[in-house]
Amino acid sequence: MRFDILTLFPEIINAYINESIIKRALQNNLIEINVINIRDFTLLKNGQVDDTPYGGGAGMVLMCEPVVRAIESVKKEDSKVYLLTPQGKTFNDKLASTIINETKHLILVCGHYEGFDERIKNFVDGEISIGDYVLTGGELPALVIIDAISRFIPGVIAEESFKEESFKDNLLDYPVYTKPRDFRGYQVPDVLLSGNHQKINEYRNNEKLRITKEKRPDLLDK
Ligand code: ADE
């Protein structure tokens, strides 16, 4: 899977992808991430990429020319291009798995300031939001999406973790514990120390159901 991230702040993306699991996925060629600075595509002399909105109003608007030229510099026939905006389709595990099944090349365009010139929408496949709140830019959403999608790619995380994690079968994950057995009077459940794998599996399945009922009963209705 290849991701192209179009942004005015490449350092934000680079800082995240050069650490931990995503860094390892890059090193193992399981994913490819290309970071592109939208400012490199302006035709204006002073590097300008935004301007005041027609009709007045607060803030600055990202201009068509640099954004569309940046998209065109990486877009191929099989690419999918999404703007990151609070108005987009809400990103979740289901959308992540749809994207991974249907897309080999994902182009994510990070907004900043007041938003994109509306006409940019004619050059993309859609908009994605990561939730009902407004962020100062699209960089965090882009990283959330890269991270969540990468976890679906075989080899990025251990297969065992992937099989058992939250939202599989619409259930939350079971609780986990590590050493010591007693932390300030709080004990690890006995069953986890029993060595009886059938009992441990039963306990974990029951816990998944109990925790989902308690914390996210809406998931059980799906
Ligand atoms: N840009 C600003 N807020 C956003 C959000 N919630 N999701 C995606 N992109 C955004």
Shape: elongated
Radius of gyration: 22 Å
Mean pLDDT: 95
Distance between the termini: 29 Å
Q: Return the structural class.
A: alpha/beta
Low-pLDDT stretches are none
Largest sheet: 5 strands, parallel
What string gives the helices and strands in order?
A: EHHEEEHEHEEEHHEEHH
CATH superfamily of the largest domain: SPOUT methyltransferase, trefoil knot domain
Q: What does the model show?
A:
The structure is a single chain. The protein folds into two domains: 2-150, SPOUT methyltransferase, trefoil knot domain (Alpha/beta knot, 3-Layer(aba) Sandwich), CATH 3.40.1280; 164-220, tRNA(m1g37)methyltransferase, domain 2 (Trp Operon Repressor, Chain A). 35% of the residues lie in helices and 20% in strands. It contains eight helices and ten strands. It has helices at residues 10-17, 20-27, 64-74, 93-102, 139-150, 159-164, 197-215, 217-220; strands at residues 2-7, 32-37, 50-51, 61-62, 79-90, 105-110, 115-116, 126-129, 182-183, 186-187. A hairpin with a 2-residue loop joins strand 9 (182-183) and strand 10 (186-187). Helix 1 packs parallel to helix 5. The longest helix has 19 residues, at 197-215. The structure holds adenine (ADE). The site of adenine has 12 residues, from strand 5.
Set out the fold topology.
Blueprint: E1 2-7, H1 10-17, H2 20-27, E2 32-37, E3 50-51, E4 61-62, H3 64-74, E5 79-90, H4 93-102, E6 105-110, E7 115-116, E8 126-129, H5 139-150, H6 159-164, E9 182-183, E10 186-187, H7 197-215, H8 217-220
Parallel strand pairs: 1-2, 1-6, 4-7, 5-6, 5-8
Antiparallel strand pairs: 3-4, 9-10
The structure holds adenine.
